[in-house]
């Protein structure tokens, strides 16, 4: 019987583990893939306070060492759900059920991708999923943003102050984004909007350097030379497995209060998988500490 089981060993889950362990609690950290979560695939992080430059995988390794040095038990296994028992929880994993007095859900999100042949080759090598994270590396360069919602248009506007030019590519003729945002993008002289268009091919050697845009109405093909593509076509929270025990919003994010309490007492949530507006390393670790402190309070 653990004091806390943490589902997902990204920055949020590992920060929660650190706080729980330092207050003498027993912790099991369950990770389905690789320890560190999304940040492990970020080659250069420049917006973590106090550390001007860091390699994301290095940061993930250090965090894992920090929590295992404090005595966390770890297991590489996918969690499939949580059962509420009499006074404790049973966490269902591929390796069998494990019991705990509290559970912290920190399963993050995955990013929807375009699914174009050859796309994967350029992940981290010219294709990014976060303009706030990676935009500043492309000062004075040419960026392409794909997507039609608020995130895509906001990213294009944000990048237009950093990059020399920004191409905004959307498959439909109208944007889902708020009209005011679309108007703002249209008024920027260095944003070039391509509606009814999809990306059909990528080119580059080790790094993406150009792509072909196909206009679906006219069948016209345009070659766009660029330094980076930001894919803003949606994030996918993987919270369905918890929907029978805690409340999710209509997009599938876990609903919680500011202390990371969910609708089920004893289950807490931290990081990108929770309903919130900013999904960054800083907010993930902030949630991890808040969720752990709420769990410690609950254990009293
Ligand atoms: C390429 C890239 C670059 C980035 N750069 C920056 C940056 O420069 N600055 C910044 O602030 N942010 C950056 N981010 C965003 C940042 O990495 C995330 O906001 C942060 O990692 C969220 O942490 P998290 O712990 O909530 O979730 P995640 O990092 O997504 O971790 C969740 C973990 O849970 C695991 N998991 C999921 N489902 C299960 C399950 N059923 N069972 C067990 N384990 C499960 C996953 O495998 C994963 O390891 C970047 C993201 C990416 C993808």
Key features?
seven-stranded mixed beta sheet; binds flavin-adenine dinucleotide; 6 helices; alpha/beta; FAD/NAD(P)-binding domain; five-stranded parallel beta sheet; 300 residues; elongated
Protein model, in words:
This protein has 300 residues and is of the alpha/beta class. The chain folds into two domains: 2-110 and 235-299, FAD/NAD(P)-binding domain (3-Layer(bba) Sandwich); 113-231, FAD/NAD(P)-binding domain. The protein has six helices and 17 strands. Strands 1, 2, 3, 4, 5, 6 and 17 form a seven-stranded mixed beta sheet that branches. α1 links the parallel β1 (2-7) and β2 (27-31). α1 packs parallel to α2 and α4 (150-160) runs parallel beside α5. It starts with a strand and ends with a helix. The model has no long low-confidence stretch (mean pLDDT 95). Flavin-adenine dinucleotide (FAD) is lined by residues 7-13, 30-33, 37-39, 41-42, 45, 47, 78-79, 106-109, 124, 129-130, 133, 238, 271-272, 279-282, 284.
Short description:
The protein is of the alpha/beta class and 300 residues long. 23% of the residues lie in helices and 29% in strands. The strands form 4 sheets. Strands 1, 2, 3, 4, 5, 6 and 17 form a 7-stranded mixed sheet that branches. It has a 5-stranded parallel sheet with strand order 8-15-9-10-11, covered by helices on one side.
Number of helices: 6
Compute the average pLDDT: 95
Structural class by helix and strand composition? alpha/beta
CATH topology heading of the largest domain? FAD/NAD(P)-binding domain
Estimate nothing, just give the exact number of structural domains.
2
Topology, number of strands: 17
The end-to-end span amounts to 16 Å
């Amino acid at each position: 019987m653990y004091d806390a089981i943490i589902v997902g060993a990204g920055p949020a889950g590992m920060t929660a583990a650190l706080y729980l362990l330092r207050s003498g609690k027993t912790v099991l950290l369950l990770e389905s893939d690789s320890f560190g979560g999304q940040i492990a695939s970020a080659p250069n992080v420049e917006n973590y306070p106090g550390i001007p430059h860091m390699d994301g995988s290095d940061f993930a390794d250090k965090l894992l060492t920090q929590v295992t040095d404090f005595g966390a038990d770890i297991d590489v296994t996918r969690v499939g759900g949580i059962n509420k028992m009499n006074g404790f929880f049973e966490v269902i994993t591929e390796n069998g059920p494990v019991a705990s007095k509290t559970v912290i859900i920190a399963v993050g999100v995955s990013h929807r991708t375009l699914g174009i042949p050859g796309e994967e080759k350029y992940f981290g090598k010219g294709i990014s999923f976060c303009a706030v994270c990676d935009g500043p590396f492309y000062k004075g360069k040419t960026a392409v943003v794909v997507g039609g919602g608020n995130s895509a248009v906001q990213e294009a506007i944000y990048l237009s102050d950093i990059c020399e030019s920004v191409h905004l590519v959307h498959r439909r003729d109208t944007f889902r984004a708020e009209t005011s945002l679309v108007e703002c993008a249209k008024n920027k002289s260095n944003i070039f909007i391509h509606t009814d268009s999809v990306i059909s091919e990528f080119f580059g050697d080790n790094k993406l350097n150009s792509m072909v845009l196909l206009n679906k109405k006219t069948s016209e093909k345009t070659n766009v030379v660029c330094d980076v593509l930001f894919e803003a076509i949606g994030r996918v929270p993987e919270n369905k497995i918890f929907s029978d025990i805690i409340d999710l919003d209509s997009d599938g994010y876990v609903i919680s209060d500011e202390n990371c309490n969910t609708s089920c007492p004893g289950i807490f949530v931290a990081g990108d998988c929770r309903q919130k507006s900013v999904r960054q390393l800083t907010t993930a670790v902030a949630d991890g500490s808040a969720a752990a402190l709420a769990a410690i309070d609950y254990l009293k």
